[in-house]
Amino acid sequence: MDNATSAPILSYYDYIIVGGGTAGCPLAATLSQNATVLLLERGGSPYGNTNITNMASFGAALSDLSPSSPSQRFISEDGVINARARVLGGGSCLNAGFYSRAGPEYVRQAGWDGRLVNESYQWAEKLVAFEPPLGQWQSAVRDGLMEAGVVPFNGFTYDHIYGTKVGGTIFDQQGNRHTAADLLEYANPSGLTILLHASVHKILFAIKGKVRPKAHGVVFRDASGVKHKAYLKKGSKNEIIISAGALGSPQLLMLSGVGPAAHLKEHNITVVLDQPLVGQGMSDNPMNAVFVPSPLPVEVSLIQIVGITHFGSYIESASGENFAGGASSPRDYGMFLPKIGELSTVPPKQWTSEAIDNAVEYMNNLDQAAFRGGFILEKVMGPMSTGHLELRTRNPNDNPSVTFNYFKDPQDLQRCVQGIQTIEKIIESKPFSKFRYDYLSWPVLLNMTASAPLNLLPKHYNPSMPLEVFCKDTVMTIWHYHGGCQVGKVVDLDYKVLGVDALRVIDGSTFNNSPGTNPQATVMMLGRYMGVKILRERPAN
């Protein structure tokens, strides 16, 4: 790994991968076995950053708003606060660690080769997946799910099966995180060059004398702002692969002239290919949670148990001091999105840092006991609702504008309501009784959660209202957003960008639905899977 400042101004490779994230790392490791690969990552290294590596510090990286943070905050036009990764290893450096495969039906619909899929999952699991040690809180959630009818109990498994199960985690028994960056251990070091703090500004296309535009290089800038160019070596199989995530990949295509022509022209971008579907089909699985203060101390745990229901909602839980943000000061609030504040009364134009600071002050003044407990969340599968992404500026380091249209489709809302009703059954179950105060009735718990500063939406909910209002008012993200370069719309079944040559997109931006209960396992698998497929097509060196 080197800083991009040390890179030559001009270089040549067989493959250039943009984005060293959850897909880009396994892809680069695989391709390096039989080709020369340049992996460009806009962020830094995850190694040596305890906010990333230690489970007890979960949430700290998400609350770090500095320019060097591994997390870059964005706020969707829906008013939900979200994050995107800016670090080698991508979202696997920031997430709650849950590792669970996609179901067989998902694999079939994607048109993947089932055997290679299984081999690719196992390849990742050898290095980064573990069985979590269950504490009392997670065990109570497990037993409560069973009592609520989310059966059978399937024990510990990576597989996606109806019922309740213990899933995998990328945290080992000591609470150390193992990210997609660890998969680079599989790389052939002589075949791989990794450049950090390398922001790719555009893909270069050769157009003259071509039937269709052909990707042949990239322009990137290092941390000092110096411009570098990397080109593909001569060779019919050599390619540029974008693995910059559901925000970064459609954004980079647009910045490179591939996207809706009228939108590109608004930003004075030369149109290489009018492709109106770039940036369309953006989805984020809505997540809603209920916080449960506990009379007993609870273990710090992130997601370990999941209830996979027949109605289309996944039930998960996390626990510990400060909503699993660690007992640090200032508090981080882990999954209850960090440092958001009482911005819900404020129109979007006035979402200022002062307003956020006031909210942080409010949270910091709450009694410590208010943060003992955990929360049970439900995430809607799919989802059915979709939105879109567009450029705000021509700077690749700026967030694009993204709209997810949470709950626009009534089926998503119905699934949320059934998920919240299931959470009520868990909280009122016998196994869970020791973790709740008798005087905090279900309506009070809902009201406490609804009045917390979870997002920037106006608040309407009170306990006399239907759960549909609770779902809409308290919607958050669990960071499973996807789309923007979808299969069948922007890329073909081999992830080749339609209408141009020598360019693929391989990451979560290609998904039409989020895989399994949590996507990271499948994103890692996809990087490995496509690397193997691409090498198979390549003549032996």
Q: What do you see in this structure?
A:
The protein is of the alpha/beta class and 541 residues long. The chain contains 13 helices and 26 strands. A seven-stranded mixed sheet has the order 8-9-20-21-22-19-25. Strands 1-11-4-3-15-26 form a six-stranded parallel sheet. A four-stranded mixed sheet has the order 2-14-13-12. The longest helix has 18 residues, at 410-427. The chain is globular. The two termini are 25 Å apart. Residues 322-351 have low confidence and may be disordered.
What's the short story on this structure?
With 541 residues, the chain is of the alpha/beta class.
Look at the structure and give the mean pLDDT: 91
**Largest β-sheet summary:** 7 strands, mixed
User: Which structural class matches the secondary elements?
Assistant: alpha/beta
Low-confidence stretches: 322-351
Amino- and carboxy-terminal Cα gap:
25 Å
Could you tell me the number of beta strands?
A: 26
Number of DSSP helices?
A: 13
> Numbering strands along the chain, what is their spatial order in the largest sheet?
8-9-20-21-22-19-25
Strand content: 15-25%
What's the Cα radius of gyration? 23 Å
Shape: globular
- Helical content band: 10-25%
